[in-house]
């Protein structure tokens, strides 16, 4: 497979032309599948970012006056265009990120689901809503959802299509404009999504793309945006939060995770093992909600271990742009080095490799086998640190209380999974400190349920994407109250003392009225 045969130079030029850049400088990207060059992507300057924001502010004022029905229609057209162009999008995702085709399709499906959800729910989510007034019958209150202005989005390389667009769709649906910096390792697929967005009817100036290092271009976005949406590491997210706080600008951050799966007594071991394979090794483990810790009850550990290892060993690795490979490549040499270091360190500290544990340069420059460890001790780096690769550690526990305690260990709280009887799983789910808890699933049930909020607790992030929460983060609630008849402070012909007594009687009466 040649990258140039899949993505011709003319196609690369048409996509990279969407980047706002006047520097004349470029950055060459390479494919993790083959190591071949993919594109020369223009680099933006701070002045380019400034121009993008100036242009976006003008466009946002016009866009905010666009009827909700027109915005919804554009999102529905995007939904259709994404599905019509599935094959090209899958090719680009694979070439830039290295993931398998099945895992690439998760992105296409998630983007289409997101576009459809906000298109259909937009009116109910952002239209003015009635609230109770202070004096019933005399005070009427409506709450408007006012767009914040220009949203800055800094998206990651691991889900380069859906994380590039799905966070921004509710922003523009609510009447904002977007200035977007996709990750430097995977810009083409983000640009392909933006191209479809423009074909769907969203004005070009409403969603603009800049490109370059996070320390330069990312910082310039944070210094100008009215709201920041960032997905990435906890270390970088902390910096983003500090920079945004200095300007008193709100932000949402989806950050790292060391996500646990608990297999309860009574769980179907074969189903749990199959679910764990998907939860641990989708996108080669390069997924914020990927499972990296498996906790199995003593009574089922042997059976689970056998079933899980057997399934992991059956996974196929491959670099072709077809549906045959189960697992794809890591994104870069640095990711390979991290996984290698974590495995070697764990083994040096007493862990056993049950399967995997090797890089596979024979398949491509950054392939690494899906790896299962047992006996990982607290001295090992991977015990508490996020690996973000195809590595999972297996642990035993003796009772459910211990399992909950183990699941809550560490600083993260992004995603968790519980396999077992639903009633018992639902009982313990609220005790697990994670933004999403999936029962008899790894992560897909919550990730694919766009009506449900998604985000992290503790060091795994701030704010939520998806659901009503995912669009209301981009608006300012504005209360508009209308007073009729008597003023709230009482009429001029009634003394303050008498009015206070009348109000006291009224409040006591209201206390006894049925709850609305």
What can you see in these coordinates?
With 516 residues, the protein is of the alpha/beta class. The chain has 2 domains: 3-133 and 145-255 and 468-475, Aldehyde Dehydrogenase, Chain A, domain 1 (3-Layer(aba) Sandwich), CATH 3.40.605.10; 259-455, Aldehyde Dehydrogenase, Chain A, domain 2 (3-Layer(aba) Sandwich), CATH 3.40.309.10. Helix content is 42%, strand content 18%. The chain has 19 helices and 18 strands. The strands form 4 sheets. Strands 12-13-14-11-10-15-16 form a 7-stranded mixed beta sheet, with helices on both faces. Strand 3 and strand 4 (139-147) form a beta hairpin. The longest helix has 26 residues, at 101-126. It starts with a helix and ends in a 5-residue tail after the last helix.
Give keywords.
19 helices; Aldehyde Dehydrogenase, Chain A, domain 1; alpha/beta; six-stranded mixed sheet
End-to-end CA span:
65 Å
Structural class given helices, strands, pairing? alpha/beta
Q: What is the CATH superfamily of the largest domain?
A: Aldehyde Dehydrogenase, Chain A, domain 1
Gyration radius, to the nearest Å? 26 Å
Beta content: 15-25%
Oligomer kind: single chain
* DSSP strand tally: 18
Unreliable residue runs: none
Work out the helix count: 19
What is the CATH class of the largest domain?
Answer: Alpha Beta
Q: Order the strands across the largest sheet as they lie in space.
A: 12-13-14-11-10-15-16
User: Do you know the CATH topology of the largest domain?
Assistant: Aldehyde Dehydrogenase, Chain A, domain 1
* Shape summary: globular
Q: What is the CATH architecture assignment of the largest domain?
A: 3-Layer(aba) Sandwich
Number of domains: 2
Mean pLDDT: 95
Largest β sheet strand count, sense and barrel closure: 7 strands, mixed
Helix content: 40-55%
């Amino acid at each position: 497979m040649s990258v140039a045969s899949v993505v011709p130079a003319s196609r690369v030029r048409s996509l990279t032309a969407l980047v706002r850049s006047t520097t004349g400088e470029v950055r060459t990207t390479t494919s993790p599948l083959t190591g071949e060059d993919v594109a020369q992507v223009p680099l933006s300057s701070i002045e380019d970012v400034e121009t993008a924001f100036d242009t976006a502010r003008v466009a946002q004022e016009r866009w905010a006056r666009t009827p909700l029905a027109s915005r919804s229609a554009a999102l529905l057209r995007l939904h259709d265009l994404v599905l019509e162009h599935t094959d090209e999008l899958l090719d680009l995702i694979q070439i830039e990120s290295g993931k398998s085709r099945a895992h690439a399709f998760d992105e296409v499906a998630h983007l289409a689901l997101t576009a459809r959800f906000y298109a259909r729910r937009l009116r109910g989510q952002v239209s003015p809503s009635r609230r109770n007034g202070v004096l019933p019958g005399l005070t009427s209150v409506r709450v408007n959802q006012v767009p914040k202005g220009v949203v800055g989005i800094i998206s990651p390389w691991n889900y380069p299509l859906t994380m590039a667009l799905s966070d921004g769709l509710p922003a523009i649906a609510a009447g904002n404009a977007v200035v977007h910096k996709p990750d430097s390792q995977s810009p083409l697929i983000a640009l392909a999504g933006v191209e479809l967005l423009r074909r769907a009817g969203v004005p070009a100036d409403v969603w603009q793309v800049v490109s370059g290092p996070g320390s330069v271009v990312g910082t310039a976005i944070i210094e100008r945006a009215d709201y920041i949406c960032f997905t990435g590491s906890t270390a970088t997210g902390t910096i983003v939060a500090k920079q945004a706080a200095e300007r008193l600008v709100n932000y949402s951050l989806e950050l790292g995770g060391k996500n646990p799966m608990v297999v309860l007594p009574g769980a179907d071991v074969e189903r749990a093992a199959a679910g764990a394979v998907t939860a641990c090794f989708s996108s080669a483990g390069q997924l914020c909600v990927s499972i990296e810790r498996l906790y199995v009850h003593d009574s089922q550990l042997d059976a689970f271990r056998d079933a899980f290892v057997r399934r992991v060993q059956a996974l196929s690795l491959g670099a072709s742009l077809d549906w045959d490979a189960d697992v794809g490549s890591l994104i870069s040499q640095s990711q390979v080095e991290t996984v290698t270091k974590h495995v070697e360190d764990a083994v040096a500290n007493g862990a056993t490799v049950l399967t995997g544990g090797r890089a596979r340069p024979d398949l491509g420059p950054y392939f690494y086998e899906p790896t299962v460890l047992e006996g990982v001790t607290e001295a090992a780096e991977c015990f508490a640190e996020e690996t973000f690769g195809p590595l999972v550690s297996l642990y035993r526990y003796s009772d459910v209380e211990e399992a909950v305690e183990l699941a809550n260990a560490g600083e993260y709280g992004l995603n968790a999974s519980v396999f077992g009887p639903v009633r018992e799983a639902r009982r313990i789910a609220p005790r697990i400190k994670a933004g999403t808890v999936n029962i008899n699933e790894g992560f897909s049930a919550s990730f694919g349920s766009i009506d449900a909020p998604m985000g992290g607790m503790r060091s795994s992030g701030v704010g939520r994407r998806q659901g009503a929460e995912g669009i209301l983060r981009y608006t300012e609630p504005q209360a508009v109250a209308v007073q009729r008849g008597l003023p709230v402070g009482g009429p001029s012909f009634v003394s303050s003392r008498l009015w206070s007594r009348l109000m006291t009687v009224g409040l006591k009466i209201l206390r006894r009225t049925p709850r609305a």
